[in-house]
Amino acid sequence: MNNMHELPLEDFLHALPVVTLYSANDEHYTLKLVNAEAARMLGYDVQGFLNNQQYTAASVVHPDDLDFLERMDEELAKSGGKLVARYRLIDAKGREVPVMDVSRAHMRDGKCIGFFSVLTDLRAIPALQGPTGRLDGV
Q1: What is the overall mean pLDDT for the chain?
Q2: Is the residue at 101 inside a domain?
Q3: Which of 32, 54, 65, 83 could serve as 48's disulfide partner, Cβ 3.0–4.6 Å?
């Protein structure tokens, strides 16, 4: 296949080995779009996350990392820029999943209305694992 136009965008997004998502900048960071990799990474039916049908995005963030992530999202919403951070999620079996999050604010008329994010599962990449925190200069 030489022409990217032959590959439907949805197929491309669901085939990526990273979680791609779009969340609203609201109280629960309501997920509006998430690819199939989230189910493989966390063991949940991702449909349950869309529009907070069964779960909220915050419900799978490690409790010790939730305040950090909320501070980072507030900073991202104010700056309108991008964020690279490392933190932990909890999968459906209760296990920690270290992730690297690369997010960009979705701005409209000077206001952040959501976040475009890519999450990489760091369990298979020990060299990138480390404490929760912002990764500057990446």
Answers
A1: 91
A2: yes
A3: 54
| Model pLDDT, residue 9 | 75
- Whether 11 maps to a domain, the answer reads no
Q: In this structure, which long-range contacts are made by residues 63-70, counting pairs with CB atoms below 8 Å and at least 24 apart in sequence?
A: 64/88, 64/132, 65/132, 68/132, 68/133
pLDDT surpasses 60 at 2: no
Residue whose pair of structure tokens reads 């085939």 in the numeric block: 15
Residue 11 CA to residue 18 CA, distance in Å, equals: 13
Confidence band, pLDDT 50/70/90 cuts, at residue 133: very high
In a domain, 94, yes or no: yes
pLDDT for the residue 101: 97
4 belongs to a structural domain:
no
Two tokens, residue 91: 């999968």
Contact 120, 105 (CB under 8 A): no
90: which 2 tokens? 């909890």
Full residue range of the structural domain in which residue 56 is found: 18-126
